[in-house]
Amino acid sequence: MWFKRKPKNRRLGREQVLDVKLRSSKIRAARTRMTAVSLGAVFATVFGLYLAYRGGEWLLNRLVYENRAFAIEEIDVQTDGIIPVDQLRRWTGVKLEANLLALDLGRVKRDLELVPLVRSVSVERILPRGLRIRVTEREPIARINVPRPRASGGVELSVVQLDSDGWVILPLEPRDRATASGQSDEPLPLLRGINPNTLQPGRRLTAPQVKAALQFLVAFEQSPMTGLADLKQVDVSSPEVLVVTTGQGSEVTFGLTDFEQQLRRWHAIFESGRKSGNAIGTLDLAVANNVPLHWLEAGAMPPAAPRLSRPLRSKKKHV
After folding, report:
1. CB-based burial label for 202 (10 Å; 0-12, 13-18, 19+)
2. Which of 206, 229, 295, 308 could anchor a disulfide with 278, C-beta 3.0 to 4.6 Å?
3. pLDDT (tens digit, 9 = 90+) per residue, 254-305?
4. Does the N-terminal peptide bond of residue 128 adopt cis geometry, omega within 30 degrees of 0?
């Protein structure tokens, strides 16, 4: 028993063990380095793109948008109507010496087309220092009296106008018109029977009776009756017919379609009455057969005032 070997403590002995902690730390360190490198690459890329963007923006401003070589020296504005050129220039909001390439052409076009009297606008850069603007105006062919309350009490009549497409236009005062407008000062035919609450400048009237009345006025200007009768008013209160009153006191009723044929019939009846010394009192052309007609003696009615036809503008007259 004295020579019996004592058992050894295993903790004091040296045995081969797996180095798990060492391998895990190396993997963690490698992952950390990869993450840092990835974040650094992303940051460098973003920072480089930002610098490129800011540098390009600075370069663009320096060479283009702030370049005095593109400062506007001439604004060429032309119109085919009555709006003064100086007024159009003010409405554009473009100032001389502004940068031509930095100018928002769409904004200039929209600002001008917000004016009810303007139909369309074209805006063009003329490098290096010019701006060209061409304006096509709406041509009024009818007027409407709108009752409005006075500040001092009572009611007064103001006038709005319509073009052939039904757009509501505020008329320019004579003093505000271009001197060489070429537009007649003759009063336009009056439309009656329209709800005044629907008359908003810059808006379009789409009621069938209004569209028919405007089509009739266009057809009348191209008919043989132009110069033989003066149109004073067109009543659109009826949903089925137009009642036209002339300056000679005639009252002619029209259907809402085929105005060319009805105007030819009016002209034939008018010529027939003139040969027999009569004038039309009332005439209903909305009836296809056996047209109701009431004659008056020609001497009892005032003659038509000499009048030139007023066709719609077909080409631009630049001012």
Report:
1. middle
2. 295
3. 999 999 999 999 999 999 999 998 999 999 999 988 889 999 876 656 666 5
4. yes
CATH of 172-300, one of 3.90.1570, 2.30.30, 2.60.40, 3.40.50: 3.40.50
Instruction: Please choose, from the candidates 81, 187, 99, the residue with its C-alpha nearest in 3D space to the C-alpha of residue 141.
Output: 187
The full set of domain ranges for the chain reads 25-66, 71-137, 172-300
Geometric angle at alpha carbon 231, from 166 and 187, rounded to 5° = 70
* Residue whose C-alpha is closest to residue 121's, from 132, 108, 110, 135: 135
| Whether the Cβ atoms of residue 106 and residue 127 lie closer than 8 Å to each other | no
Buried b (16+ CB within 10 A) or exposed e, 268-307: ebbeebeeeebbbbebbbbeeeeeebebbeeeebeeeeee
**Whole-number CA gyration radius for the chain:** 41
- pTM score, two decimals? 0.73
Give the other-Cβ count within 10 Å of 2's Cβ: 3
Protein fold of 71-137: Ubiquitin-like (UB roll) (3.10.20)
